[in-house]
Each structure stands twice: as structure tokens, then as C-alpha cells.
Amino acid sequence: MLRITLPLQKQVTPVPTISRVAIIGGGFTGATLARLLALHGQYWPHEIVVFEPRAELGGGLAYDADDPSLRLNVAAHRMRAVPGDPQAFLRWLSNSGRLERDPGAMANGAIYARRADFAAFMAGQIQSFIDDGIVRHVRERAERICRRHGRWQIEGDGGASLQADVVVIATGHPPPTPPGELASGLSGDHRFIPHLARPDALRAIRQDDKVLVVGAGLTALDVLGALRARGHRAEITLVSRTGHLPQPQAAGDFAPHGDFLIGVPNTALSLLERVRFALEEVTEAGLPWQSVFEALRHQGQAIWRALPLLEQRRVLRHLRRRFEAHRFRMPPQIAELVEREGAAGRLRSCAGRIVAARPGRAEIAIDIATGPHGTVERHVAQWVIVATGPDHGNVISSQGCLAELEGVGLLTKDPRGLGIACDHDSRALARDGYPVEDLFVAGPLARGAFGELAGVPEIAAQAERIVQQILGMSFATTRTITIRSM
Predict the structure, then answer these.
(1) 19-173+390-470: what CATH class?
(2) Backbone φ and ψ of 88, nearest 5°
(3) Whole-model pTM?
(4) Fold match between 19-173+390-470 and 178-245+328-384?
(5) N or C of the chain: less Cβ packing under 10 Å?
(6) Which fold has domain 178-245+328-384?
(7) Which sequence ranges form a coiled-coil region, renumbered to this chain (predicted)?
(8) Starting from the edge strand earliest in sequence, which strands make up the sheet with 151-156, in order?
(9) Where are the chain's structural domains?
């Protein structure tokens, strides 16, 4: 590989060297990037382009949900979605009248809004820039991204084709990958729902149909809430390797507790010991344990960077599920539903591994290995739903445009299995290990580099940093040419 840095011709008035930015994905991450770029006023109309097949920007897979039973798992005052204005969403909820029309939003002394309301808020944040023509919304899925004459060529699945100087990959969470035993045993069976991307995925389930959900995280609890809101009353079984359900949010407001940045732990074991010590402290002080995990969230990126790759992998292998159950907590409304349904015997949680699935005429038989000695339990249900969460390890292969970039060496998988490899400036790492200066990775797909990058505040902060880098490139005094032999 050869890298040459050349000075640009001096001019009296700086002329932007970056004229068009293409953002692949228009969920929360993509819409935030587009809005922040537009606010700087340095782009001509249609020079900020967002490829997103949905009708509106800002919602994406996470928040584009019409079901009123689906709520944010974070209180509205903690949804710091707009940099510089942390209470913007809470203020909008009140001013728009949506809070008044949602009497069930208040719980545990805080507001847990509907996800559809947050999607509407984000759409409103970007809409004026679309109306003015500053941001162009291409309602297509990006099918191809390639290099052409020193620029990026992006082609959509509906015929759109344009060139850009910078590309930001912000496609968000990939779909889950069903366990192999389910994929092979239930392939083609309409009672097997491998992912919940379609809004009508649950519509055919009848009130008295038993349901087995593979997964026990927030996505699985979404299934529980959505089905019960539709009048479903039969037994629902959640199956996962550990059986750990998300923990509830604490009542009231509280400050983060614990300083993990003094003598930052550099092994998985030392991190675990520090967390346990902090939990003992808050227990003795009568504080909620959730305050420790809020501190971990705020300091998460610095903690993650201090861990060597081998220790990061140990954290993911041994501590990930337990951490996620405490980090990604369920809203009080769902916690109340879980307690009620469990007490009534209509909700079960099973720890184990699926070893076989056999479809019958009236029901599906699922064999689950439980316990260390391979004891197998048979469960029967009319429906099997996969809600294991996104498969970040296979995100590149799941999208043709990303697979093509990987094929030519301009994109690589994160070595931890958390998405796409990038540096701490969010630039994609090529096969040769060097960053691609004009290709960025934004949002959860960059978790491998940052660790904590799933919540709205963290994604908004990363988007702000990426925008500053792109703006800095626009008026650069030098240009680096990278010649790669892949």
C-alpha cells in the first residue's frame, strides 16, 4: 500500500473539497447525521443524501412501530437525542399533545413514551431540511457501493444512481440469525417467524395459540407485550441459553455511582471485581443497583478501550448476557406485565439449547437441552418466533452493498463479532488494516471500536464527532491519496 499526501492549491477563499455526503440508512443514526450536517449550512441542496426505503427518516427498525404497546425502555428525560438540547424530546412530547393522549406513559415517577412518538419526533427534526431541499431522501435501499474515478458510486434498488465524496454506513441493526436446528427443521413453515421485520408478523397468531419465543431480551418482551395487547391469552415460553430476563428500571431519578476510570480495569476479571465492589457500596448506602450500570454506561467507551482485544473477547464470552440483562432494562409497564403473566402461569422462561424442531399438523415440537447433563425437554407450540436480537457478526454478508465493499478489501468484519471494523475516528478499516478516509461507520455497527454504542445519547455524540470530521475534510489543506493492492 502507498500513501501520498499532497498540498492542495492555495486559494484566497477556501473552496470545499467535499461536495456530497451519502448516508446509507435513515434511522435515528442516519437522520441525526443528516440533520447535524445540514445545520452547518455548508452544503448546496441535495448534497446531503440519505438512502432509506421507509417513508420517513428518524425511526428506522428500532422506533418505526405503530403498535401502541411498544414503549421506549428509557425514560423520556434520558432520551438525549439532540446534541446541545437534552430535554428536546420531553419538551416536544408535552407541546405536541402526545403525552396528554397517552395516559399510560407515566410509571415509576417518569415518562416512558411510545416508540412511535419518538419516531415522529425524529421525523420532525429532519423534515424541514428535506422540505428545503438541503437533505435529499432517496426512498430506496442501497444495493451497490463502489469506487469510480476517485469518488463513491451508490446505486439503489429502485434505479437511483449518484456519486458522493463521503459515504457513511448507518444501516443500524441487522436481522437475527435463527438457530440452525430451527432453520433446517422449520424452513418453509408459515408458523415459523424467523424475524420480526414485517409490521404484520404477529397478525395470524390466534388468541389461544401457544407461542414459543427464541430469545429472552427486550425483543422477546416486545413480542409478549404486542401479543397481549391484541388479546392473546395462551401460554408464551421464552427460551434462551441463560434464561436471564431484562431487569426492571428503578423508580425515581438517581445519579450514576462508581468511578471506573481511576486505574481503569484492563482484564475481564478486574472489571467484574470492580463492578461487584460498586454494587456492594450502593447496597450498603441504600441506593439502586441501576446507578452502577448507569456509571458503566457513561464510562463504557473509555473502559472498553483500556481492555486488550483478548480481554474484550472474554467480556463478550463470559459476561455479555448478564451485563445486557442489567444494562438494557425493561420499562415499568412491561415489568408489571411480566410479573402478572408469570404469576398467572401464562409466561415461562426456559434456559437451554434447542436441539431439534419437528413440525406437526396441529403443533410444532421443540426439543430443548437443559442442564449440564443434556436433559432434553419437549415443548409444543403453534408458533415459533425468533427474537434473539441482531446478528452483528453477519451484518456484512446480510447486505449486498457491504459484501461488495468487503470483496474489494475496503471493509472488514469487526474481530469481536460486533459489526464492522473501524478506528476510533469511526473510519472503516480496510483489509490492509488502514482506515478508508472517506468511509465512516456510524451507530451500533461500530460497537467493536467503542463498546458502549447502543443508546441514543452515545449514538448522537458519535454522529456529532463524525460530522466534525467530515466538515474538517471539506476545507482540508492537504489531500491523502491511498494506493492499495488488495
Answers:
(1) alpha beta
(2) -60, -45
(3) 0.91
(4) yes
(5) C
(6) FAD/NAD(P)-binding domain (3.50.50)
(7) none
(8) 142-148, 151-156, 161-164
(9) 19-173+390-470, 178-245+328-384, 266-325
Cα dihedral sign, 65-67-68-71: negative
Helices of type H across 205-319: 218-229, 268-285, 290-306, 309-314
| pLDDT by residue, tens only, the chain of 486 residues | 555 555 555 444 444 456 899 999 999 999 999 999 999 988 888 899 999 999 999 998 888 888 888 999 999 999 999 988 999 999 999 999 999 999 999 998 899 999 999 999 999 999 999 999 999 999 999 999 999 988 999 999 999 999 999 999 999 778 888 888 898 999 889 999 988 877 688 999 999 999 999 999 999 999 999 999 999 999 999 999 988 999 999 988 889 999 999 888 999 999 999 999 999 999 999 999 999 999 999 999 999 999 999 999 999 999 999 999 999 999 999 999 999 999 999 999 999 999 999 999 999 999 999 877 778 999 999 999 999 878 888 889 889 999 999 999 999 999 999 999 999 999 999 999 999 999 999 999 999 999 999 899 999 999 999 999 999 987 655 555 555 555
The order of strands in the sheet holding 48-51 is 135-138, 48-51, 21-24, 166-169, 435-441, 427-429
Cell readout for 472 is 474538517
Rounded Cα gap, residues 27 and 10, in angstroms = 39
Cell of 113: 413514551
How long a stretch of residues is the chain? Answer: 486
Strand duo 21-24 + 48-51: pairing: parallel
